Amino acid sequence: MLKLQARTAITPDFVAGRAFPVVAPALKIGEEPRHGLIRIQADAWATHTRADIEATLQLQLPLAESFTANGDVRLAWSGPNEWLAFCSIQDEASIVHSLRERFAEKFATVTLISDSRVGFSVAGPDAASFICKGCAIDVEADYFSSGTAVTTRFAGLPAMLVCREVSDYVLYFDVSMTGFVLDWLLDAVEEFRS
Question: I need a surface site. Which of 31, 83, 97, 118 has the fewest CB within 10 A?
Fold first, then answer.
């Protein structure tokens, strides 16, 4: 019987001999390792929603445009009544099961979407300048600090932009956009190479 192995990276299929990941003097761009990603949709005003999510993930529900973290698990606000939980691949099935059990008989949805997103890390002293080439979000540390997560448009595409730390960002896109995003990133980074 054929034994299938899960992919850990998507970009090798799209690089075609170009230098990626990018390592410039003050900027590094690479693909984020694959991890579990779970969409939670529920009534944010319902008392049970906060209690169920916080008890399952062992972290606080984040405020709008932010994320909370506990070890390998992060929970990002994605929009009204929607959050994205990031976790290790090994834990995704058990977290989905636990959340679905807690939300049984309640108006809520828990969906595993790990295979539908690709993430790109952008880090280094020039990271904020690079991010500003693709979107209109002010990513200066005073306004877009560690723990911020926003849904926006980057390079004209829907994206989630997360600030893990100062000068350390992650951009998430629909996996079907990988080729376009990679072309855009490699073209836009040229001015940062020297």
Answer: 97
Band (12; pLDDT cuts 50, 70, 90): confident
- Token pair for 97: 């099961």
Q: Which amino acid is at 8?
A: T
Check residue 109 and give its pLDDT.
96
Which residues are paired to 117 by β-bridges? 174
Q: How far apart are CA 174 and CA 25, in angstroms?
A: 29
∠ CA 118-78-91, rounded to 5°: 60
Contact criterion met (CB below 8 Å) for 121 and 30:
yes
pTM of the model: 0.90
CA distance 55 to 98: 10
Q: Which two tokens stand for residue 126?
A: 């020039």
Between CA 109 and CA 83 the distance in angstroms is: 11
Q: Which amino acid is at 81?
A: N
Which residue ranges form the domains of the chain, and what is each CATH number? 20-33+115-192 (3.30.1360.120), 36-114 (3.30.70.1520)
Position 123 pLDDT exceeds 80? yes
Number of other residues whose CB lies within 10 A of the CB of residue 79: 13
Range 76-90 average pLDDT = 95
Percentage with pLDDT > 90 across the chain = 83
Reduced to 3 states, what is the DSSP secondary structure of residue 116? Answer: helix
